[in-house]
Design a protein that fits this description.
Blueprint lengths: L1 E2 L16 E3 L2 E3 L4 E3 L5 E14 L11 E17 L2 E14 L7 E13 L3 E12 L12 E14 L2 E14 L8 H4 L1 E15 L2 E14 L8 E13 L4 E14 L13 E16 L2 E13 L5 E14 L4 E14 L10 E16 L2 E14 L5 E13 L1
Antiparallel strand pairs: 1-4, 2-3, 4-5, 5-6, 5-22, 6-7, 7-8, 8-9, 9-10, 10-11, 11-12, 12-13, 13-14, 14-15, 15-16, 16-17, 17-18, 18-19, 19-20, 20-21, 21-22
Length: 399
């Protein structure tokens, strides 16, 4: 049967979703499908698109190709009790190139979460699966891989704030080789413990401290090294104006590897220290319209050294002409710098920038289209330089 889901009593109703999302396209659903007992709401959804990538392999000698992309999925929520909520989101994706068939992708993602909300505490358990071919930030290559993650988080309220603790476990399974590694070398397991304290100093602002301890182990240690990660950050967030919000954090991360990269002491990167943090400002200059500006610094395991330091900025502007028609522009710039290099070789760095434009039109409730175009340029002192133009037009439907 169909109809409008009636609000239920209980604190768990604070965990809600205002819209249904397919890929990252947000739309109001055509209707709410609800089981007869009223506890299960679900929304089938689909998307079909046509696109072009001018540099499929992210190389200097560019090979371009067009593709067709389709997504089918379902999103739902189950209010099993007054204080328990289960949410799930499944999307299956197929991407087919006209000429470069070895880049075809059959993938998707699933996210599920169970939330129990009590009088003073909230506990959640989540699972995540995805099969993707997103570009590697170190090289720009589209590498097919699978993600299997799970996590548990507990948060407890106190008089002037709250504390939280969590555990993340997962696996990254690479399904194809890259230019500088094999799939078996790059596949890994990881675990991460994290916790923190949030002090609420006003209705619209808080400060926080957070700590993390993690371990990652690779299937092979011929190239990449198992490692411990220890990090700490302090943060602040709040309003700095009627329509302006700021979120800032800063700290330090230490990565301790079992050996130097490829067991070669010339890299000298068994211990890597990286400043980490983010500053995100948002200006909500009118209803449904915003400007975001972000600066960030973080660390990751590199493909050509033990670690890489990544720092950059992101700009995103979205203007709503009305509730259904939105357009905007975006841009990013970042640098990736390795933690070491072989004797006589320079430390690898890569600088990348991208600019683009986007438009979204929800023609009627639950049916919409969007267009996105971007141009990126990436230069490295030792690896392939490349330029890439991407454009895609898509139609989506959400029931």
């Amino acid at each position: 049967m169909t109809g409008v889901l009636c609000p239920r009593a209980g604190a768990v109703e604070g965990v809600d979703r205002p819209e249904v999302v397919i890929d990252d396209f947000r739309m109001e659903p055509l209707a709410n499908f609800i089981t007869e007992n009223g506890i299960h709401e679900f929304h089938p959804k689909g998307l079909l698109g046509l696109g072009y990538d001018s540099n499929v392999y992210a190389t200097e000698d560019a090979i371009g190709d067009g593709f067709v992309r389709g997504i089918a999925g379902i999103e739902g929520r189950i209010n099993s009790t007054l204080f328990d909520l289960i949410v799930y989101d499944l999307e299956l994706e197929s991407k087919i190139y006209f000429q470069e068939s070895d880049r075809n992708l059959l993938g998707g993602r699933f996210d599920g979460e169970w939330v129990r909300e009590g009088m003073e505490s909230t506990t959640s358990t989540g699972v995540h699966w995805a099969r993707i071919d997103d570009p590697l930030i170190e090289t720009g290559e589209n590498i097919q891989r699978s993600e299997y993650y799970g996590n548990v988080v507990h948060e407890r309220e106190r008089a002037n704030g709250s504390w939280n603790a969590g555990l993340d476990l997962g696996r990254n399974q690479f399904d194809e080789d890259g230019r500088t590694f094999t799939a078996e070398e790059r596949s890994n397991w990881f675990g991460l413990l994290n916790g923190g304290w949030i002090w609420q100093f006003s209705e619209t602002g808080d400060t926080s401290v957070n700590g993390t301890v993690g371990y990652r182990t690779y299937d092979l240690d011929t190239r990449f090294q198992d490692n411990w990660v220890v990090g700490a950050t302090a943060g602040w967030r709040g309003r700095i104006g009627d329509r302006t919000f700021l979120n800032a954090s800063a700290g330090l991360e230490a990565r301790m590897y079992a050996d130097d990269f490829v067991h070669n002491p010339a890299w000298d990167d068994k211990l890597v220290l990286v400043p980490v943090g983010v500053v995100l400002g948002r200006w909500q200059y009118r209803e449904f319209s915003r400007v975001d500006l972000q600066f960030y610094s973080r660390a990751t395991d590199s493909t050509s050294a033990n670690a890489a330091w990544i720092y950059g900025t992101v700009f995103d502007w979205l203007h709503a002409f009305d509730e259904r028609w939105r357009a905007g522009a975006f841009g990013t710039w970042y640098t990736v710098r390795d933690s070491g290099s072989n004797t006589g070789e320079p430390i690898r760095t890569r600088e990348t920038w991208q600019i683009g434009a986007k438009a979204e039109l929800e023609m009627v409730r639950g049916i919409g289209g969007r267009f996105r175009v971007s141009y990126a340029s990436s230069d490295s002192n030792v690896d392939e330089d490349f330029d890439r133009l991407e454009a895609v037009i898509e139609m989506g439907i959400v029931f």
